[in-house]
């Protein structure tokens, strides 16, 4: 029996959510001169890139894109980053992922910045599923879904040949 997919967000709705989140980030950081947007690979990075594009158009501050690759199956923090962690010192960090489920990925994302004094760290997810095992909250979410554990959220974003969408199956 094939998986039944329910469309949660289409391409236009995803962009509307990203635009709204960008304006919320602007309001939260209006007095800043620069913010750092850290996207967690693979899909969090696509969302981070789109946030940066909108912020570059609307914000008076500059934004820089950072990339974090986490080994999500690891029992400890194992991360690869494309930046010098010291450049984050006393800066605003916006940590971006696609879906918040258990909270483990965002918790590991926080871990990258634990040894650096930050001005502020904010979290962004496109979908917040409300099934946290870790004490993680989001500052900005595109949509919050009350789902059962057995359901799965698929985020299709930045995939060549496929239209952006969020599905529940």
TrEMBL record:
Keyword presence, Transport: no
Domain Phosphoribosyltransferase: 9-154
Pfam families reported in the protein's UniProt record: Pribosyltran
GO molecular function, a single term: glycosyltransferase activity
CDD domains named among the record's database cross-references: PRTases_typeI
Top-rank lineage group of the source organism: Bacteria
Statement: the UniProt record of this protein carries the keyword Chloroplast: no
Keywords: Glycosyltransferase, Transferase
Stated name of the protein: Phosphoribosyltransferase
């Amino acid at each position: 029996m094939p998986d039944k997919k329910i469309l949660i967000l289409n391409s236009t709705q995803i962009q509307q959510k990203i635009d709204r989140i960008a304006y919320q980030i602007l309001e939260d950081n209006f007095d800043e001169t620069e913010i750092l947007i850290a996207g967690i690979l693979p899909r969090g990075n696509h969302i981070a890139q789109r946030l940066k594009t909108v912020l570059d158009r609307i914000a008076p501050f500059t934004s820089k894109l950072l990339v974090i690759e986490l080994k999500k199956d690891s029992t400890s923090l194992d991360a690869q980053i494309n930046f010098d962690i010291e450049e984050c010192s006393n800066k605003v960090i916006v940590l971006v992922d696609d879906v918040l489920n258990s909270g483990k990925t965002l918790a590991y994302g926080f871990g990258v910045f634990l040894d650096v004094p930050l001005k502020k760290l904010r979290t962004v997810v496109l979908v917040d599923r409300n099934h946290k095992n870790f004490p993680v909250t989001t500052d900005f979410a595109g949509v919050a879904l009350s789902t059962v554990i057995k359901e799965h959220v698929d985020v299709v974003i930045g995939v060549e040949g496929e239209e952006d969408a969020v599905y529940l199956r």
